[in-house]
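Blackboard transcription, Thursday session:
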Amino acid sequence: MAGNTGKPGQSVSGRVFALLRAFDPAHPRLSLTELAQRAELPLATAHRLVGQLEQQRALERDEDGYYRIGLLLWELGSLARVSSRFREVALPFLQDLYEATRENIHLAVRDGFDALYVEKLSGHRSVPTISRLGTRLPLHSTGVGKALLAHAEPEVIQSYVERNLVRHTRYTITERGRLLRELRTTVTRGYALTNEEMTLGSCSVAVPIPAEAGEPAGAIGVVVHSARADLPKLVPDLRAAADGIARRLREDTDGPAPGAVHDFPRRPGR
Amino acid sequence: MAGNTGKPGQSVSGRVFALLRAFDPAHPRLSLTELAQRAELPLATAHRLVGQLEQQRALERDEDGYYRIGLLLWELGSLARVSSRFREVALPFLQDLYEATRENIHLAVRDGFDALYVEKLSGHRSVPTISRLGTRLPLHSTGVGKALLAHAEPEVIQSYVERNLVRHTRYTITERGRLLRELRTTVTRGYALTNEEMTLGSCSVAVPIPAEAGEPAGAIGVVVHSARADLPKLVPDLRAAADGIARRLREDTDGPAPGAVHDFPRRPGR
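(Written on the board underneath:)
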C-alpha cells in the first residue's frame, strides 16, 4: 500500500500519502484501525494525521465513524489534466456514442500496466460492468486495455506479456504467444475485441485515440451483452469519436499532451 | 489561500495542503514561485515539499516546468462520495435530460455559500458556460444555486443575503429583499429560473433533488441560450430526473447521506 516514502520514520508528507493511498475502489471506506494497518502506521500516528486530514476536508467521517476521501480531494482531482482536459474534451463524443448505442461507453488511459478508467457513461438499461471512474483494470482482458497495449511501445508489450497474466474467466487470454498474436491482430484491423474475457456475458470493442506521436492518448470502448453483440458494426462510430477527440486535443492550447501518463513500470506501492 | 494550518511554522501536513490548495479552477497550472507565493511558504520549503508531492504523483510537472494536480489526486478524488455515489447515481438521469434537451445539464451541491458543480453534460452545440466540474459559483446568480439556496435552512438563507451579493451582469439580483422574494417564489412554484443573471445570453431552470429530510441532496439544471428559451417546458423532465435520482439515492445502501456537504459558514481559507 504505502509507497517507499510511506513507511514509519519517513517524511510526514509520505505518511500523509500512505494514509490517503489506503483508499482504493475496493476500499472506499475504512475504520481508523484499518487505515493505520493499510498505511503501516502506528495507531496513534494515524489518529493524529487523520485528524489533520479531516480538518482539511481531505478525509471525511461517516455517521458510522468510517473514513472516506473528502470533498477537497475531489475538487483538487477535478483539476488534473486527465479530468479537466482529456475527459472534458472527450465527453461530448462519448455522449454521441452512448446515444447511438445505449450501451456502456468507456474512456481509459494506460497508466503503467493498467487501463485506468477516466469516464464511463451508461444508461438505465446498459449491461452492468465492474468498471467505475478511477478503476484500474488489466490491459489483456479489457477492450480499451487491449487497444492501449496493442499500440504501446514494444518494450511495454514485452514486459507486460512476461508477467503472470491473471485469468478472470475461462476465456481470458493468459498465454503469452496467443496474447501477442491477438495484439498484432488488433493493430492490423484497427480495433480491439474481447469476448467474455473480463466478465462472463459481456463483450467489448475498442479503438485507440490517435496521438500526434507515440502512444495513443487513450482508448474508447463499448461494452455490451454478449447475446446482443454485433461489435464490428460499432467500429465506424467509435472511430469517428476517437478521431474527433484527437482533433480537439490537438486544437486545445492548454499545455502539451493529454491525460495519459506513461510511467513504466508500475508506480511503486500500487 | 492557506487554511489556518497552512502557515509557515504549522504542521507539515498543513503545508502540504497549503500547496495543494494553491490550485483552483482559475489556477490549474502554477510555477514553483507562484505555488510558494499562493501557499505563503518560503521558496526552499515549497521546493522540497513539491518534490515529495511530485514523487507521490500528487503533483505533476508540465514540459514547461509548470506544476499541475497529478493523477493520484484524481484517482483518490474519484472515491469521494460526491463522485462515487452521488454523481454515479445521477449520471443516467442526466443523460436522459441531455438527450431530451441537447443543452447544458448541470448537477450541483451546496457547499457553504457556493454551488459546487459535480457534473456537467454538454453537447457539441450547447451554449458555452463557465461552469466546469469542480467549479464553485454563487448561489444567487445560478439556476442550481437558487434551487439549493431556496431550500436551505432559514439561517443559511439569512446569512447568505446579508453578504455583499456580487453583480455578474446587469440582471444579477443583488438587492436583499428582491432575492428573498425570488427564493420564496422558487419554493412556491417548485423550480428556479435565471435570466442572464450569471452570463449575458444564457438563462437556466433548475430543481432541487429531494432528500428524505432537511436540505435537498443537490440540484439539477439546464442552461440554454436566452433566445431559444422556453424554460418552464423543461420542468417536467427535470422533475422526473430529480425524483429518479432521489429514489436511487434512497435505495443505495452504501452509507448515509449523499455527496452534499453542508458546512456552514464557508470553510476557512477558500
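Lecturer's comment: The radius of gyration of chain B is 20 Å.
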